[in-house]
Sequence to fold (335 residues):
Amino acid sequence: MSQFDEKLAAIAEQLKNGVVPPKESVRAFLLWFGAERRGYRVIRRVRSALRRYGVATSPDFEWAYIDGQITFIKAPPEAQAPQGVADDSAPDPTYRIGRLGSANRVPTYVAPDASLQQVTTVMMSNDFSQVPVMTNARDVKGIVTWKTIGTRLALKKPVTTAKDCMEDAKTLNAAEPLFSAISTIAAHDYVLVQAQDKTICGIVTASDLNEQFRLLAEPFLLVGEIENGVRRLLHGKFTLPELTAAKAPGDDGRQIDTPADLTFGEYIRLVESEVNWKKLKIEIDRVTFVAQLNRVREIRNDVMHFDPDGLDDDDLTFLREFAQFLKRLRDVGVA
Fold:
């Protein structure tokens, strides 16, 4: 029996007996399955296992912050797998702002009566553009920004404490869809994030969004560069019947005119044939090259499913190196 089977069987028994199982972080939970991130293949595997044992997590492991805690609960009857029925279900697919790392780091804040010198020192020493004004983790009075300070000073208003230069704070629930939160963050440069228990659990700034989308953009760009490189490698080397023969079985209605009309999996189908491989006239090992294309295909599937956890470092390094490899082939004139 695998590690996750043992653990989930024990959890199911605890729940059956009315015992509350220990909490786990999402990261630790994924390690039961030998995974470090939530790619779509991992998610399907985990969901299938949970469903088999009649167990669910709260919040759902797929959408919770990766270092956040999850509780194990009995799965509702509709989420339990009937014998012999495959599990292809998934909960609400919306990406929530609470899944971002910055939404799960309790922000530094100042009290309403903190002096202007205290406020500016906190902001300057931490390189903050804004700082919340709060009396405790649930009681938000407002927010101070460099703009609110400068505006009041420019208008000769008396500013001695945080409450003299604060404005209403923009707050969103951690369950807010990430993309709908973007407009708020773009307009105000930040948003405070409120957890289920009404505490302020984080602050997401425009800089945080920039970094998040940079991490997401690089794999997309690398995959696109690799696909274009493979198409160029194949261009002009095959007849239309040969290209058409690479189509996936059962997809007879799709017309193929150029390599660009093939899917990535069909590129692999095309070049794994030794006869077709010889037409490329490249003095590199076919088996190794096909294995690398298969790895790109698997990573590509994760990238296209838009996972805020990002790629494993090894996968990202592999994409960079394979893109460079294809570029070297182009540089020496073989592609």
